UniProtKB/TrEMBL annotation:
Record's protein name: PTS system trehalose-specific enzyme IIBC component
Organism the protein comes from: Amphibacillus xylanus (strain ATCC 51415 / DSM 6626 / JCM 7361 / LMG 17667 / NBRC 15112 / Ep01)
Source lineage: Bacteria, Bacillati, Bacillota, Bacilli, Bacillales
Domain of life: Bacteria
Transmembrane domains' residue ranges: 106-130, 161-181, 190-211, 231-252, 259-284, 304-324, 403-423, 443-465
Coiled coil: none
């Protein structure tokens, strides 16, 4: 009998049997189930299995934390359950949507747009962070008042060269967004790239120069004129244009005969999409994006900025649970486009750190629980590097009080960050490395906020563990 046969059989029974499994896949540490009836899964009983480190439900998927040996357990489970082992994560996402309401599906779609471009945003954030260090920190030289690019031609060349990549990622972001939409919708991806390029073409007035322009060029059609404005770094115009192109192509495939579809579908999809993007959706998307970013920026820099910051810092982690946090990517990018920086991203980085710090406290409290440390230690490291889900779902939410402690620490750190005017030049770099995204002049205050995000959750978690709240959590989990 294989190592995990008994555990696999028990898990199969507790998730409601093979007939209740629509799709099952796995990631680095978790089994991901899409169940026909989620109510049949006995989460409490599953968490008592020796091989299981925890469970949670997210994005319509019931997820079981197994740990580093998840691949071996998955292979044994699929044999015992008699379910196919060829399903992919995309299959699971599609199947999971039947368990979501309209808002959840909307958020899931938004997440699927940004997920493929996150690696580029992370790279861009690191590059802009490095340019911060060599180009903005005037702490070098004989008198300690010069930047590295002022002292060395090599660093000056590196500073200029790295902007080639930074500009490609952030200024030409609409290309990546429209491509991602066509990829998600299953339409022609090269058409998405072309549409994205028409939004950032060098022929157009750069979006960053519109405010200062004395005259805006235009296309003159005789009966109408259309402003030649680019949408560099603009998120909402790109999203709207991408969906118009995708739905046009899907509709045209249904009405145009297949024998001529290769010619006429791309033609009648792309040209109207470009026209609609520049005549209608671009201006509307620009106005909506400016409206959203202005409200956020005004709120965070007003006399009541501390209140906005405390609410956001406290609520960001719960937003991650619902998936609504993906909306902040669009707001951050819009803030960067409009104000050349964002005061939202520093709070996100601090929230990541706070969740990781609460896990550190749980590592201290449960230092004799070797099984839990297989989840908690990697989860804490992951949090400090900007990925919070393993920590939140695997440890903090399971106990409850560490999650609350992290939210309080995040709120206090956010107030310090916003109150001292900390701004980030880019997004994508979260957790402790997030300081690389922060403007050089704001490093000191960000480090102070970071210290709060580390210390408060640890101390508060240790304190809450001794209260009735903590004791009830341990009793509920059978830890006492």
């Amino acid at each position: 009998m294989a190592k995990y046969t008994d555990s696999a059989k028990e898990l199969l029974k507790l998730v409601g049997g093979s007939e209740n499994i629509s799709v099952v896949t796995h990631c680095a540490t978790r089994l991901r189930f899409v169940l026909n009836d989620t109510k049949k899964a006995d989460a409490k009983a599953i968490e008592k299995l020796d091989v299981v480190k925890g469970t949670f439900t997210n994005a319509g998927q019931f997820q079981v934390i197994v740990g580093n040996e998840v691949a071996s357990f998955y292979n044994e489970f699929t044999k015992v359950a008699g379910v196919g082992d060829t399903a992919t994560k995309d299959d699971a996402k599609v199947a999971a949507k039947k368990n979501m309401n309209f808002l959840q599906r909307l958020i899931a779609n938004l997440a699927e747009i940004f997920t493929p471009i996150i690696p580029a945003l992370v790279v861009g954030g690191l590059i802009l962070g490095f340019r911060n260090i060599i180009g903005e920190i005037a702490e070098f030289g004989p008198n300690g008042n010069q930047t590295l690019i002022e002292l060395s031609q090599f660093w000056k060349g590196a500073f200029d060269f790295l902007w080639l990549i930074g500009e490609a990622i952030f200024h030409f972001l609409p290309v990546g967004i429209v491509w991602s939409i066509t990829r998600k919708m299953g339409t022609t991806q090269i058409l998405g790239i072309v549409l994205g390029l028409t939004l950032v073409s060098p022929q157009l007035l750069n979006a960053y120069g519109v405010a200062e322009a004395t005259e805006i060029p235009f296309w003159d059609f005789g009966f109408a004129q259309v402003d030649m404005i680019g949408y560099q770094a603009q998120v909402i115009p790109a999203i709207l244009a991408g969906f118009v192109l995708a739905y046009l192509e899907i509709w045209l495939r249904k009405v145009i005969p297949s024998v001529v579809s290769m010619i006429f579908v791309p033609f009648f999809a792309l040209i109207p999409a470009v026209i609609i993007a520049h005549v209608v959706l671009g201006p509307i998307g620009w106005a909506v994006g400016d409206w959203i970013s202005s409200i956020v920026y005004t709120g965070l820099t007003s006399a009541f900025g501390w209140l906005f910051a405390s609410v956001f810092g406290f609520a960001y982690a719960p937003l991650v649970i619902t998936g609504l946090h993906h909306m902040t990517n669009a707001i951050d990018l819009q803030l960067m486009s409009q104000f050349d920086a964002t005061n939202l991203w520093p709070m996100i980085a601090l929230s990541n750190i706070a969740q990781g710090s609460a896990v550190v406290a749980m590592i201290i409290l449960n230092r004799r629980d070797k099984a839990e440390q297989q989840v908690s230690i990697p989860a804490a490291v992951s949090c400090y590097l900007g990925v919070t889900e393993p920590a939140m779902f695997g440890i903090n939410l399971k106990y409850g009080f560490p999650f609350l402690a992290a939210m309080v620490g995040s709120a206090l750190a956010a107030v310090i960050s916003v109150g001292s005017g900390v701004m980030a030049n880019s997004i994508g770099v979260g957790g402790i490395p997030g300081f690389l995204s922060i403007q050089a002049g704001d490093w000191l205050m960000f480090f102070i906020a970071m210290a709060v995000a580390i210390a408060v959750p640890i101390l508060l978690t240790l304190a809450l563990a001794k209260t009735k709240l903590g004791k009830n959590a341990y009793e509920r989990l059978g830890k006492e």
